[in-house]
């Protein structure tokens, strides 16, 4: 899977144009699941652009309540049935907006109650890595979610994105070995706990230049792409790298 997180970028007309450009370049992709995650207000018009394609439509976040006095929030029932997936636990939610492991877990569980596929983002800060705490931090983030739900979703209905915080939007990509090591740990930890691991993506300054090497590593099943997802030609090159890596497996 290659998923493009547009974050808080583009106006609606620019987002629709970006969706058209992604459709033009990636619409025929048959090997890799391609997803775009526009801002909330773009979801419906982008859905209309992508309607006849297999490109998945995702939201960047979701709230855990069904409805009510939660100004500014979007609930799972508002998305279910027409939006394919939601991202929860992105490091910007955790670190800029103070979202806790428990809140991320509530979001995950609520999205699943409404049948939405979920991408769960996990990852350590630079200090946590320097202190040798990458594995315990990632384990804690995963465990918070697994403890909240009765049973893990089927492996094809959720995805884990390993995104070291220090690599997101910084141009400092994790080395393929670093990414592979943590993705392998996640896969093993989730398999031990849930029976079967979902796909594990790497995210953090993935570009058209480093994607092929990252995706060639065993256990990295694609990428969650921020900055490069705003440039359709770069995003398409990253999708092509994932397709080649998938064919080589
Ligand atoms: C992200 O937002 O999930 C991300 C990985 O961003 P970037 O590719 O810009 O580092």
From TrEMBL:
<keyword id="KW-0413">Isomerase</keyword>
<dbReference type="Pfam" id="PF00121">
    <property type="entry name" value="TIM"/>
</dbReference>
<comment type="function">
    <text>Involved in the gluconeogenesis. Catalyzes stereospecifically the conversion of dihydroxyacetone phosphate (DHAP) to D-glyceraldehyde-3-phosphate (G3P).</text>
</comment>
<feature type="active site" description="Proton acceptor">
    <location>
        <position position="163"/>
    </location>
</feature>
<keyword id="KW-0963">Cytoplasm</keyword>
<comment type="similarity">
    <text>Belongs to the triosephosphate isomerase family.</text>
</comment>
<dbReference type="GO" id="GO:0006096">
    <property type="term" value="P:glycolytic process"/>
</dbReference>
<feature type="binding site">
    <location>
        <begin position="5"/>
        <end position="7"/>
    </location>
    <ligand>
        <name>substrate</name>
    </ligand>
</feature>
<dbReference type="InterPro" id="IPR022896">
    <property type="entry name" value="TrioseP_Isoase_bac/euk"/>
</dbReference>
<dbReference type="InterPro" id="IPR020861">
    <property type="entry name" value="Triosephosphate_isomerase_AS"/>
</dbReference>
<feature type="binding site">
    <location>
        <position position="169"/>
    </location>
    <ligand>
        <name>substrate</name>
    </ligand>
</feature>
<feature type="binding site">
    <location>
        <position position="205"/>
    </location>
    <ligand>
        <name>substrate</name>
    </ligand>
</feature>
<dbReference type="InterPro" id="IPR035990">
    <property type="entry name" value="TIM_sf"/>
</dbReference>
<comment type="pathway">
    <text>Carbohydrate degradation; glycolysis; D-glyceraldehyde 3-phosphate from glycerone phosphate: step 1/1.</text>
</comment>
<keyword id="KW-0324">Glycolysis</keyword>
<dbReference type="GO" id="GO:0046166">
    <property type="term" value="P:glyceraldehyde-3-phosphate biosynthetic process"/>
</dbReference>
<dbReference type="GO" id="GO:0004807">
    <property type="term" value="F:triose-phosphate isomerase activity"/>
</dbReference>
<dbReference type="GO" id="GO:0006094">
    <property type="term" value="P:gluconeogenesis"/>
</dbReference>
<comment type="pathway">
    <text>Carbohydrate biosynthesis; gluconeogenesis.</text>
</comment>
<dbReference type="GO" id="GO:0005829">
    <property type="term" value="C:cytosol"/>
</dbReference>
<comment type="subunit">
    <text>Homodimer.</text>
</comment>
<protein>
    <recommendedName>
        <fullName>Triosephosphate isomerase</fullName>
        <ecNumber>5.3.1.1</ecNumber>
    </recommendedName>
</protein>
<feature type="binding site">
    <location>
        <begin position="226"/>
        <end position="227"/>
    </location>
    <ligand>
        <name>substrate</name>
    </ligand>
</feature>
<keyword id="KW-0312">Gluconeogenesis</keyword>
<dbReference type="GO" id="GO:0019563">
    <property type="term" value="P:glycerol catabolic process"/>
</dbReference>
<feature type="active site" description="Electrophile">
    <location>
        <position position="90"/>
    </location>
</feature>
<dbReference type="InterPro" id="IPR013785">
    <property type="entry name" value="Aldolase_TIM"/>
</dbReference>
<dbReference type="InterPro" id="IPR000652">
    <property type="entry name" value="Triosephosphate_isomerase"/>
</dbReference>
């Amino acid at each position: 899977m290659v998923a493009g997180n547009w974050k808080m970028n583009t106006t609606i007309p620019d987002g629709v144009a970006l969706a058209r450009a992604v459709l033009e370049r990636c619409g025929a992709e048959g090997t890799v699941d391609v997803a775009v995650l526009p801002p909330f207000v773009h979801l419906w018009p982008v859905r209309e652009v992508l309607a006849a394609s297999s490109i998945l439509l995702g939201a960047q976040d979701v709230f855990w309540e069904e409805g009510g006095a939660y100004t500014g929030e979007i609930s799972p029932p508002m998305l279910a049935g027409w939006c394919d997936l939601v991202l929860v636990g992105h490091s910007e939610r955790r670190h800029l907006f103070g979202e806790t492991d428990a809140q991320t877990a509530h979001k995950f569980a609520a999205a699943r109650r409404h049948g939405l596929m979920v991408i769960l983002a996990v990852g350590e800060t630079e200090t946590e890595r320097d202190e040798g705490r990458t594995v315990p931090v990632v384990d804690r983030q995963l465990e918070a979610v697994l403890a909240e739900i009765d049973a893990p979703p089927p492996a094809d209905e959720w995805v884990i994105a390993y995104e070291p915080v220090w690599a997101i939007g910084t141009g400092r990509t994790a080395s393929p070995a670093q990414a592979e090591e943590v993705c392998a740990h996640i896969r093993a930890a989730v398999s031990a706990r849930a029976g079967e691991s979902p796909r594990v993506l790497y995210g953090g300054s993935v570009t058209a230049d480093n994607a092929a090497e990252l995706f060639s590593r065993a256990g990295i099943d694609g990428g969650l792409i921020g900055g490069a997802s705003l440039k359709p030609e770069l995003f398409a090159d990253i999708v092509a790298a994932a397709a080649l890596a998938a064919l080589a497996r």
